[in-house]
C-alpha cells in the first residue's frame, strides 16, 4: 500500500521559514517524480513544484508564486521528500500535499499538512 | 498558460441521478486531461487520466470523455460517497500541472 505522510506544518509569522517532510512507502521511491501541491482554505488546488528522479538529474521546477523562496529536495536513502519554505507570506497559508507524479498526473497523494502564516 | 474552466461551479443532484461535469481548456490540450475527486476533509484522488482512462480501483460508474478543448466527467447513478468536489487537470510544458477551479456535487 502506498503511503505518503507529511509532517512539519504549523503556525509561522510572515517572513519566517518552515520545513515540511514527507515519508514515503509502498513504492519504489527513487523511481518516482515527486511534487508538492497546496490548497488554500476553501480554495482549489495549486501546484507548487516538483523534483525529478536522481536518474533524471534530480531537476527541480517551481511555480512562479514560490520560485526563489521554496526549495524541494529528496533523500532516496530515507525515502523522503522535503519542502523548505523561506520568506513566507500570508498567501502561502494552505494545506500542503506531498504527491507522486505518473505521466504528468498526480497518482498518489498524502493527507496533507497545514501551514498557517499569520 | 492554458486555463481550465469548470462548470457548473455547483451541481445539486439526488442519489441515483447522473452527474455531468464540464471542463473547458483555453486552447487544445489533446487528450491530456485528468479528473480528481476530493471528499470533504480528504486528499484528492485520481479518477480519470488521458481523458477517458479510469485509474486503478475507480468504479465503472465514473467515465470521462472529450478531446481538444472540451471534456466531460460523467458519474452514472450517484452514490452517497460521490458527493464531493471534482477537479480537472492538464499536463502541460509549463506550468507542469494546471488545475481547474472545481465543481462541487452536492446533495439536492
General description of the model:
The complex is a heterodimer of chains A (118) and B (108). Chain A contains no helices and 11 strands. By secondary structure, chain A is mostly beta strands. The model of chain A has no long low-confidence stretch (mean pLDDT 96). In chain B, strands 2, 4, 5, 6, 9, 10 and 11 form a 7-stranded mixed β-sheet that branches. In chain B, strands 1-3-8-7 form a 4-stranded antiparallel β-sheet, with no helix packed on it. At the A-B interface, strand 5 and strand 10 of A face strand 5, strand 9 and strand 10 of B.
Q: End-to-end distance of chain A, in Å?
A: 36 Å
Q: What general form of chain A does the structure show?
A: globular
* Quaternary structure annotation: heterodimer
What is Rg of chain B? 13 Å
Tell me the total number of β-strands of chain B.
11
Q: Order of helices and strands of chain B, N to C?
A: EEEEEEEEEEE
Mean pLDDT across the residues of chain A is 96
Structural class of chain A: mainly beta
DSSP strand tally of chain A: 11
- Average per-residue pLDDT of chain B, rounded, comes to 95
Structural class of chain B: mainly beta
User: How would you sum up the global shape of chain B?
Assistant: globular
Please report the number of helical segments of chain A. Answer: 0
Global Rg of chain A:
13 Å
> What kind of sheet is the major sheet of chain B?
7 strands, mixed
Tell me what portion of residues of chain B adopts beta-strand conformation.
over 45%
**Proportion in β-strands of chain A:** over 45%
Head-to-tail CA distance between termini of chain B: 36 Å
In short, what is this structure?
By secondary structure, chain A is mainly beta. Chain A has strands spanning 3-7, 10-12, 18-25, 33-39, 45-51, 60-62, 70-75, 80-85, 94-102, 105-109, 113-117.
Amino acid at each position: 500500500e502506498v503511503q505518503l505522510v507529511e509532517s512539519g506544518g504549523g503556525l509561522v509569522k510572515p517572513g519566517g521559514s518552515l520545513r515540511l517532510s514527507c515519508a514515503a512507502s509502498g513504492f519504489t521511491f527513487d523511481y518516482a517524480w515527486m511534487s508538492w501541491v497546496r490548497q488554500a482554505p476553501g480554495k482549489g488546488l495549486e501546484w507548487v513544484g516538483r523534483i525529478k528522479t536522481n536518474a533524471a538529474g534530480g531537476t527541480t521546477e517551481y511555480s512562479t508564486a514560490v520560485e526563489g523562496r521554496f526549495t524541494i529536495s529528496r533523500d532516496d536513502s530515507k525515502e523522503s521528500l522535503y519542502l523548505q519554505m523561506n520568506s513566507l507570506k500570508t498567501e502561502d497559508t494552505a494545506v500542503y500535499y506531498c504527491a507522486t507524479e505518473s505521466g504528468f498526473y498526480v497518482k498518489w497523494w498524502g493527507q496533507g499538512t497545514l501551514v498557517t502564516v499569520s | 498558460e492554458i486555463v481550465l474552466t469548470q462548470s457548473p461551479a455547483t451541481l445539486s443532484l439526488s442519489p441515483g441521478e447522473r452527474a455531468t461535469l464540464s471542463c473547458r481548456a483555453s486552447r487544445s490540450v489533446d487528450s491530456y486531461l485528468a479528473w480528481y475527486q476530493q471528499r470533504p476533509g480528504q486528499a484528492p484522488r485520481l479518477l480519470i487520466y488521458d481523458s477517458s482512462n479510469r485509474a486503478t480501483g475507480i468504479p465503472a460508474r465514473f467515465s470521462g470523455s472529450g478531446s481538444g478543448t472540451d471534456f466531460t466527467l460523467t458519474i452514472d447513478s450517484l452514490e452517497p460517497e460521490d458527493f464531493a468536489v471534482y477537479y480537472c487537470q492538464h499536463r502541460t510544458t509549463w506550468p507542469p500541472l494546471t488545475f481547474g477551479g472545481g465543481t462541487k456535487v452536492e446533495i439536492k
